[in-house]
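Predict the holo structure. Ligand: flavin-adenine dinucleotide.
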Amino acid sequence: MSVANHYKSNLRDILFNLFEVNDIGSNVLNHPRFSTMDEDNAKDALAGIETFAQEVFQKAFVPSDRTPLTLDAEGNVGVPQEILDVFHRFYDDGWHMFEVPEHLDGFNAPPSLVWSAFEMQVGSCASATFYLFGIYIAKIIDRLGTDSQKARYVRQMLDKRWGGCMVLTEPDAGSDVGAGRAKARHIEGDVWELEGVKRFITNGDFETENIVHLVLARPEGGASGTKGLSMFIVPKFWVNEDGSLGERNGAFVTNVEKKMGLHGSCTCELTLGDRMPCRGLLVGEVHDGIKQMFHVIEHARMAVGIKSVSTVSTAYLNALAYAKERVQGPDLAKAMDKNSPRVRIIEHPDVRRMLLELKSHAEGMRALALYTAYIQDQVQILGGHGATEAKALDRLNDLLLPLVKGYASHRSYALLGDALQIFGGSGYVRDYPMEQYIRDQKIDTLYEGTTHIQALDFLFRKVMRDGGKTLMGLMMKMQKTLADIKGLDAFSVEHAALTRSMGDVQSMLMTLQKKVGESIYHAGLQGNRILFAIAETVIGWLLIRHAQIAAERLPDAKGRDVSFYTGKIASARWYCENVLPGHTLTRKLVENSTLQATAVPEDAF
Ligand SMILES: Cc1cc2nc3c(=O)[nH]c(=O)nc-3n(C[C@H](O)[C@H](O)[C@H](O)COP(=O)(O)OP(=O)(O)OC[C@H]3O[C@@H](n4cnc5c(N)ncnc54)[C@H](O)[C@@H]3O)c2cc1C
């Protein structure tokens, strides 16, 4: 075991989610919307990505952390050669076409498969994975751009490996995107000139032919807040109408941040229109910037949640391997006998506790992410985002996203501490990947909306504005699972735990509704807690469904599947006994919510 070969995938569990739980073979791949792949091709593709992640992506993991990025006077960013190697191998081997629609000659993989592949890429080297974002930006221009914009950008971005980034944040506009001051002045047609300073921009520049920045800026005289923002295609090098590359455009990287982790991913200050005019094209010739950017934001939120899931999963599997080798101390039951043999640390109850905590959460958070991805498959089958028939499932996807991003990123940071703990002092040194995992993962609770921004989005936009309908629909699915397992002795613990947890979270929401009548601050004070409890209830439900399927298959299972299914049942039991009961305390804390925190005088802090 070494940090260089750190990445441990869990393709078996990914396949279980995709084909044994969500049955995408019948429910997705059989549908004409996704006819380019059958179940066998899909499994082969994922096995191919797993190999690619292990043989190519993970080689960049250490260099991406330890080789500093460079910035020259012309605003060009240099990244480690190992990252460029991953980038070019990805395109050389044609993986960039996996998610691209058929009309662009891509394989049109459904979201379930795209996110499964992403899990393995981002888990093996997140920094390298992010440089591939240009592929998604090309898809966005293909979806939202005018015909002329599509002709100028989309195929070139894919064929010529152009980079892409999303440009929202400014020094005074972080969570409050609507406070952005970057401004845009109309020149002619869809051409505008932009001015302003953007901050913390991932992929702001790197060594590729062109970079396409999707920028939010406010047209002169535009309304304040997010409503007045428009979205612009701002290339590093101008793209002429015939598609040829023009002169340097005035979007310059003026600083590269020195971060706690994720060192290989360049996080840039981007200055627009200072050294020379910065031209951009108004996307789709409509002033609908925040709505358009939400296509990118939602994608990025899912990506961040899965990055956290993947990091916890590989951390768990590394900790497991270490715990099976490391010998230290006697069995607790024989501790008084000085001559008792020393045992491997996996034999110590506290280490087993941490391992099961990691295993059940890694599997549970993956289940949540891939269930969400499966809902995205169904949205596409029903006509896609905005289609009338897809509306209900689209809302379910919207409801689940803050759970994937907000909960998984927050919980993972604590879980990675446990994974490091299993290594003892060795976890704290660079010989093992744990310390880098923690540094590289922490950002997940911050970007794409901090945890609390996710909680507010969940409570106000996804639950209250919807009158609780979508959440109730999800609860009814859980009720059905409970009805199916009623009377089965083997699942009586699970039945009781989920029943109670559902009651707790429903009660929390009702209590909050009343308390918000007293003061909206209760939502601010209790929001994160409620977000986490609901995420855990959904995860508990999914793990119970996994355990039911595993229990059905166990009697006929052979070889490694016996341990796999046994482990799935153990994960659900652990979660039901150790995580879901915590919601009763959370309910009481919400019931007892007071405004004390808001009343303490600032000087008393
Ligand atoms: C490595 C990295 C990469 C990034 N990549 C990109 C990128 O590619 N493109 C891009 O546009 N941006 C990017 N960002 C910016 C990122 O999205 C912001 O940092 C994030 O949205 C938080 O904004 P902020 O840093 O200004 O924090 P602030 O908004 O100042 O938040 C500080 C604290 O206050 C809390 N807070 C803020 N507002 C509220 C509120 N209304 N109610 C309650 N609490 C609140 C927050 O939860 C947080 O705890 C990146 C940032 C980093 C660090």
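The radius of gyration is 25 Å. The chain has a mean pLDDT of 97.
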